Each structure stands twice: as structure tokens, then as C-alpha cells.
Amino acid sequence: MSVDGYIDDASPERLRLSNPADFDRVDAVRASCDAILVGAGTLRQDDPQLLIRSESRKAQRVARGRAPDLTKVTVTGSGDLAPEARFFTTGASPKLVFSSSPAAPALAGRLGERAEVIDGGDPVSLPALLAELSRRGVRRLMVEGGGDLHTRFLTQGLADELQLAVAPFFVGDPSAPRFVHPGVFPQSPGRPMRLAEATRIGDVALLRYLIGGRRG
Question: What's the CA dihedral at 21, 22, 24, 29 to 10 degrees?
């Protein structure tokens, strides 16, 4: 995010908030996880592939008996997802879409075999989503955005680690998307997160916080 807490600006082009060294760090974090989750808004705005970039990291995963890429997961209330999005057309690992109950049947028909559509309730329940991923063998989930999901995971106490890469500039546009939305957060002056790491990556500052009772 920017110094003032934005994860993009209001222009049509994606704002680059990090540098190549941090992008490589993020790729290493991805490679350590079982699944990656982004919201439907992020799919529509950024059209990400959500793949591991490093071939050596993919090979190491395969050598350990894991899939070369992560299971991809998204959440949608409206069902407004394009079958041609790169989320669905890249990578051989499973693609899971947790949809609100009203939108699930039509979305399943539109996506066909490109993804498995799961009725997540109305609205989609994140605890139920996590329980279903756990049932499928996901032990480490990376939540990569956007602001709505960040807010829901943090306000509901569902995250155990927060990694913030702070870019060395301001955005300052109130119409731009922020890292989190307004909400009631259990993390507070009375219940602070624990700073486990503060690292300089060029001019980017990486802050890694442990949340709740996690001590690792």
C-alpha cells in the first residue's frame, strides 16, 4: 500500500506499489501456500493470473509432492465474472468460486468446466469458506486482496498474519481504493498486533505482523 493506505489510484492503469525484489518475495510467499484468494472486484479490475512465477519454486513444490501452482479461490456476490478472465484460463490447479446462493446456479452454467462454483451462502460466509478449503487440504491460504476481503478477514478475526509492503509515496485520492474499509477491528490499542519483522526492500518497507495468539 502507499504511505497513506491506498492499494491503487483511480486511473485505469494498475498502480505499481512495489519493486522487483518485493515482487519476488511475494512469489516466494505464494510458493509456500496451498491456495490464493482474491475478490471478484480484483479479478475484474486487474485480471491477475495468480501463478507462481519462478520455475525453480514450482519444481521444488513438485519435488515435495505438491501441485506446481496454487489452488485459486475467489468470492462473488453478484456472479459477475468473465469466463475468459486469466484467473480461469491460466494454470492447471483447481479454480474455486464461492458464490452467493442466488448467483450460484447461473454462474456455474456460465463458467462450465473452467471452475467449480460453490454455494457459499447469502452473503458468502468466510468461516464456511475456510472450513471447505480446510476439508480440501488447504492449510495455508494467502489472501491477496482487495480491500473488501482484507476488511472482512481482519474484522472477523480470521487472519493470523499480515504482511504490509509500504510504498514510498502518497496517493491522496479519496476515490481510490484503500487497503481496508471502515469497520470494527479486534486489533486495537488494547489488543495490538505483534511486529515480527521490519525489513527494507529498496525504498519499500516490509512490515510483518502476527495477529491474535500466533507467535511464529
Answer: 150
